[in-house]
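Per reviewer request, we include the raw input and output of the structure prediction for the construct analysed in the revised manuscript.
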Amino acid sequence: MALFAAARRAATSSLPLLRASTASLLRPLAAAAVRPMPFSSATAVRPSSDDELLRVIKSEIKFAEDCDDHDRVEEIPENFPFKITDKKGLNEITLTRTYQGEKIEVLVSMPSLVTGDEAEHDQDEDDKEKDDDQEDGEKAPKSTIPLTVTVSKSDGPSLEFTCTAYPDEIMIDTLSVKQPAANDDEELIAYEGPDFNDLDENLQRAFHKYLELRGITPLTTNFLHEYMINKDSREYLFWLNKLKDFVKQ
C-alpha cells in the first residue's frame, strides 16, 4: 500500500508538469492559427508607383483635351466623291466609291508630319550654309499621307496603287495587278511590273490622270491630311483613357 500510495503521489505530482509542457507546445500552434496568412483574400493595395503613373496619365489626358482638336468635326468638301468609313481605335480609314462600274477603295493611313522646327533641327550648320548658297537645292521635307488605292471590276483582277500624297502633289510609288483571292497561288509568282519611276513618262502621266478621274486629286488628299491629323488626336486621347482604365484596376 505504501508503494502504491507513493506511486500515486508521484503520478499526481507530475500531472501539472505534463499539462504545462503540453500547453507550452500548443501555444505556438494556436498563435499560428490566428496569424493572417501572407496571401489573404483582402483587397490588394496598389503600389505607389502605379499612383504616380496614373497621375501622369491623367495630366497628359488633360493636356491633350486642352490642346488638341480631338472633338473637332471636319467639314467634308462639296462634291467629295468618297464615302468615309472611320472606325474608332484604328489608325486608318477607308474611302469607297463607284466609278463607271468600277469599285474604288482607298486605304488612308496616319500622316507623317514634318514641322519647321524638325526640319531645322535635322540640319547641321554646313547644311544651312549650303541652303543659303543654293537657290535650286533639294526641296524641304513635307508632311505626307500614305494611300493604297484599289480599282476593281466585278470579280476579275484589280489594280493596286501605293501612293504618297504631298501637299498639292500625289506620287505613285508602285503599281501592281492583283488576282482574285481564289488565285493566291498564281499571285505569288506573278510578274508585277517594273518600278513605277522606270516607266515611260507618258505612261506615268497617263496613270496619274487615271487616278485623278477616279477622285485621287490634291483637293481630296489635302482634306484627308487635315482629317487624319484630327483623327490622330482623337485616337491618342482614346488610347490614353484605355491606359488610365487599366492602371486604375
